[in-house]
Amino acid sequence: MSPKTLKYILKRIGLAVLTVWVVITVTFFVMHAVPGGPFMSEKAVSPAAQAALEAKYGLDKPLMVQYITYLRDVVTKFDFGPSLKQRGRMVIDVIRDGMKTSVKLGVVAAAVAGAIGIVLGAVAALRRNKLIDKIIMVITTAFVSMPSFIMGSLLLALFAIRWAILPANGATPQGLILPIVTLALYPMAYITRLTRSSMLDVLGQDYIRTAKAKGVSGVKIIFGHALKNSLIPVITYFGPMLAYIVTGSLVVEQIFAVPGIGRAFVSSITNRDYPMVMGTTIVLAVLIVVMNLVSDILYKVVDPRINLD
Amino acid sequence: MDKKYTMHVDVDAFIPATEEEKEYMVQMRPSSTFFKDGVKRLLKNRVATVSFFIIVLITLASVIIPMFWPYSYDSMLGVRPGRPVDASYNNLAPFAYGRTELKKIDAGERVFPHIFGTDSSGRDYFIRVVYGTRISLAVGFFASIIVLIIGMTVGSISGYCGGKVDLIIMRIVDIIYSLPDMLLVILLASVLKMTLGPALEGTALEKIGSNIISLFIVFGVLYWVSMSRLIRGQILSLREQEYVLAARAAGARGGWVIRKHLLPNCISVVIISTALQIPNAIFTESYLSFLGLGVNAPMPSLGSLASDALNGLSSYPYRMVIPAVVISLIVLSLNLFGDGLRDAFDPKLRN
């Protein structure tokens, strides 16, 4: 690894740390700008009890002190405080529980999207302007322009209600099939288009012609030269894909009632469970920032010719 | 010495042109402007032209139809003042009628049909879809304009000033760019929804609704960065172009260079990315509406219509399908038209 690459990686890590700090700070101050405070709930609380509650959670201290305490707890102990609506549970425990399901969902969706997308993209590029290429392109264009919540609802209406082949409730392993498909379709379509265009680009390169001229077999050209090199741009998509899957899972988990972190996030917004909203935002943001970092660095390491600055 | 000079100058070059030579200078056809060229290229692109007509058609329909339609988006047909609620108007199937309407038809009167039926509160669904389309388009359009204004101002300041100003602005842009936008959009939208509501009460903005305003604020805060990056890059690179140098060498002043060279080249990129921003904004609005953070009820948007339809999905699937199709059609044709614009007006960007 050249010193230049190392410098780039360090710079990217620095930016990522800064981003995470900005997310924590923005989340903290935005949530504290809400009038009323977290204990203004439907039940009337006596002023004495309110004061006692605020003292217990440290809400009577000045805002800056609260901020520094919060930042310290988050960074050193991953402690986001207790959940306000789910009595007796810490935010981090709720997040951890939700993550178990959501990570499964996201990883499978990403894997499916990657595998099918690359294959379809390669097929479309190799059969350029043939019927199969056109079919693939029309279908992927349709998928790319359809919001995930509409896709999810349509799949639900067709497979779970009209034909009743798959369960609509995402709490069971079988019920995860539809949410996974919903989440995977958009990235799959995107990866297909990305692979197709980059493969077409690679197939026009001189080294492919050289390989052909040398008599290398078609299979070897496709798998040894073309596919390998055309996957480089696909790597950069893995960061944005994770961001898409995370935000997509917010609605998809809602539609299919999957007990994951996305549904916990949405319900914490409607419940005004502030520590929960803050904690989930921060955890998901860190996840996205880290994935973007990894895919950027990977891109740079795989192909040192690329200058990302 | 003098003699040597005269030998270098070709005296023939100074003889007045003959009629025959002047012929060459006559324009065989009128010169085409950059804009005319672009339009010609755009019209040749069949996909982009069709998309453009679809967009115009949908926009016109969403503006004109509510003017003469006999039903309004928020009137519950079963509710009459001083009478019990007539539940026969709720959840009507397409082209079905409520009880009092059936009586009128029996009496020989003509009743305007409910093309898509009514929703669970007895509101005509067709006009709600039309109105929701109007709201979604308007939100997309204005959000893009806000992004354009902020992005253009910051980007051009950054590009023109350069130096420390540029450095600081670009670091801020870098950080905002790497923030997970959707999460912050949700966070900001949910917080602004609570804080803006009381603040707007009684003002002219109340009619628009706190949620749409908060959506605009969110867009103004988060989405200007890519636009400003684009414009800064454009201005920086255009300033160094050879034709700018050539124009300067030919004696063009700064104002001329900016008007004739920098702006026309910049503006195509700006228009294209604004056009591509609109479907993005529509997407985001529908997404937020679906999570319950979009427009204020009873105002419909395509996202909130789809979200409402989720509850009765097994009985009334068409209520989900209709807004879904409209939204996909709008987003798809805007994207295709934006791509066509880019190909026509900025061939350099083509990939």
| Mean pLDDT score of chain A | 85
Q: Over all CA atoms, what is the radius of gyration of chain B? A: 29 Å
Class based on secondary structure composition and strand pairing of chain A = mainly alpha
Mean pLDDT of chain B: 81
* Distance between the first and last residues' Cα of chain B: 59 Å
Shape of chain B: elongated
* CATH class categorisation of the largest domain in chain B: Mainly Alpha
How are the SSEs placed, and which strands pair?
The complex is a heterodimer of chains A (309) and B (351).
Chain A lengths: L2 H30 L14 H10 L6 H15 L13 H36 L4 H14 L3 H15 L14 H27 L2 H8 L4 H13 L1 H5 L1 H19 L4 H11 L2 H29 L7
Chain B lengths: L1 H7 L10 H5 L10 H11 L1 H23 L30 H8 L18 H37 L1 H16 L2 H20 L9 H13 L1 H16 L2 H8 L4 H37 L11 H8 L7 H29 L6
Helix pairs in contact in B: 3-14, 4-6, 4-14, 6-7, 6-9, 6-10, 6-12, 6-13, 6-14, 7-10, 8-9, 10-12, 11-12, 12-13, 12-14, 13-14
Task: Write a structural description.
The complex is a heterodimer of chains A (309) and B (351). In chain A, 75% of the residues lie in helices and 0% in strands. Chain A has 13 helices and no strands. Chain A is flat, with a radius of gyration of 24 Å. Chain B folds into two domains: 266 residues, MetI-like fold; 47 residues, no CATH class. Chain B is 68% helix and 0% strand. Chain B is elongated and about 110 Å long. The mean pLDDT of chain B is 81. The longest helix of chain B is centred in the middle third of the chain and has 37 residues. Chain B has 14 helices and no strands. At the A-B interface, helix 1, helix 6, helix 11, helix 12 and helix 13 of A face helix 7, helix 8, helix 12, helix 13 and helix 14 of B.
